[in-house]
């Protein structure tokens, strides 16, 4: 039998508690779009759709010509489908995990280790750090998307130290003064910032809970009296405190940038970049790893000392955290998100309604294609029959294969494709 090159996938859904519930979730809508017989429960969170071969959520193959049940099994049996460069560089493994996230409650204050630290943590604490790979990741907004990312400019942090006395109390006078006097000296600034953040994160529980309760009470009263609470980041503080009462992570909003992405905008989270997703739906792509160092806004294992030691303490404005897409010079429908890591690249493919025939071009690596909007009939070389694609359809495309789309929806199509362009 000839090896099948392109086939549809049924992908794993993760029902983490922070996910959007029922059909409020973009994940649930895509699952239902891809399989109209799927049962979506109104009271269940649909947090993540995993499109890939990760052992915790290996995609099922929906093609009766293929005897292998999962994508992971298929790649193990036919590693050539990855393309020779990817196969050799990543030891016959698909190097990325492609996801859709629907975030209702904040995800933990976290960072991902680089390769060296990941290997060390995995060797020391395998129960908390399950593999030795790094985990750079990128989020591309599907709906307006809110997150925390990277340390704010120092003048903003100093502003909060002045206007939020409860925050100042946790950092302490000495560290706050050191930060103030480091202005203009990048090296000293990073050290002073590390000292301030570490002081706060290591604060005694009783002390920070008392300060947090005082701050929440003050901001609530000011808000009720119609006062502007933006100098205390009041609206976000109260929202996070309602989700994680008594959590030190509530104070992180005074250190970290609040980044608001519009649909199509992205942020890239390299090694050691502190971040937290707060609300919205996004496409996410990451190296195939599950390593996360957490320090707040979570009931999971917290490793404050590792996090404080590893972080990148380079302050920068929120606007600098928005990662640009670049239009492909050879195809005006394709917008590339190409981060500075070898593991993955994401393409956003926007086919206008005026175009009825479109070819997803071949690349020299395997890819996963997700339909976010629109409908088409897909034809591939050597396929016995056409495939119907609609919102929520997911295809695996082997290296050097093209897919011809006959588009039937009047408003065109939006697709996302993850691949590894070495």
UniProtKB/TrEMBL annotation:
Pathway: Nucleotide-sugar biosynthesis; GDP-alpha-D-mannose biosynthesis; alpha-D-mannose 1-phosphate from D-fructose 6-phosphate: step 1/2
Cofactors required: Zn(2+)
Cofactor note: Binds 1 zinc ion per subunit.
GO molecular function: mannose-6-phosphate isomerase activity; zinc ion binding
Record-annotated active site: 294
Pfam families reported for this sequence: PMI_typeI_C, PMI_typeI_cat, PMI_typeI_hel
Annotated localization: Cytoplasm
Positions contributing to Zn(2+) binding: 110, 112, 137, 275
Reactions catalysed, as given in the entry: D-mannose 6-phosphate = D-fructose 6-phosphate
A GO cellular component entry from the record: cytosol
Role this protein plays: Isomerase that catalyzes the interconversion of fructose-6-P and mannose-6-P and has a critical role in the supply of D-mannose derivatives required for many eukaryotic glycosylation reactions.
Family membership: Belongs to the mannose-6-phosphate isomerase type 1 family.
Name of the protein: Mannose-6-phosphate isomerase
């Amino acid at each position: 039998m000839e090896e099948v090159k392109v086939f549809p996938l049924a992908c794993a859904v993760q029902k983490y508690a922070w996910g959007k519930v029922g059909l409020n979730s973009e994940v649930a809508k895509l699952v239902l779009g891809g399989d109209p017989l799927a049962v979506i429960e109104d009271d269940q969170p649909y947090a993540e759709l995993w499109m890939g071969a990760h052992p915790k959520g290996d995609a099922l193959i929906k093609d009766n010509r293929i005897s292998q049940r999962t994508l992971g099994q298929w790649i193990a049996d036919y590693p050539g489908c990855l393309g020779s460069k990817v196969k050799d560089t990543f030891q016959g493994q698909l190097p990325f995990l492609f996801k859709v996230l629907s975030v209702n409650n904040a995800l933990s204050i976290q960072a991902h280790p680089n390769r060296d630290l990941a290997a060390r943590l995995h060797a020391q604490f395998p129960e908390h750090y399950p593999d030795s790979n790094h985990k750079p990741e990128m989020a591309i907004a599907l709906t307006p998307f809110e997150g925390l990312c990277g340390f704010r400019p120092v003048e903003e942090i100093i502003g909060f130290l002045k206007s939020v006395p409860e925050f100042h109390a946790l950092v302490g006078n000495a560290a706050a003064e050191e930060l103030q006097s480091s202005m203009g000296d990048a090296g000293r600034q990073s050290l002073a910032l590390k000292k301030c953040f570490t002081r706060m994160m290591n604060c005694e529980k009783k002390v920070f809970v008392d300060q947090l309760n005082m701050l929440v009470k003050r901001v609530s009263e000011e808000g009720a009296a119609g006062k502007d609470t933006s100098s205390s980041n009041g609206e976000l503080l109260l929202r996070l405190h309602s989700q994680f009462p008594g959590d030190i992570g509530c104070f992180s909003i005074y250190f970290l940038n609040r980044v608001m992405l519009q649909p199509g905008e992205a942020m890239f989270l390299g090694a050691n970049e502190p971040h937290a997703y707060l609300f919205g739906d996004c496409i996410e792509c990451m190296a195939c790893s599950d390593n996360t160092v957490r320090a707040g806004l979570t009931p999971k294992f917290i490793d404050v000392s590792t996090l404080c030691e590893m972080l990148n303490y380079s302050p920068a404005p929120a606007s600098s955290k928005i990662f640009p897409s670049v239009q492909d010079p050879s195809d005006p429908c394709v917008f590339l998100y190409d981060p500075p890591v070898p593991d993955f690249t994401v393409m956003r493919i926007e086919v206008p309604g005026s175009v009825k025939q479109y070819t997803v071009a071949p690349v020299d690596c395997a890819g996963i294609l997700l339909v976010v909007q629109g409908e088409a009939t897909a034809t591939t070389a050597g396929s016995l029959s056409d495939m119907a694609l609609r919102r929520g359809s997911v295809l695996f495309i082997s290296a050097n294969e093209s897919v011809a789309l006959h588009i039937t929806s009047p408003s065109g199509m939006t697709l996302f494709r993850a691949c590894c362009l070495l």
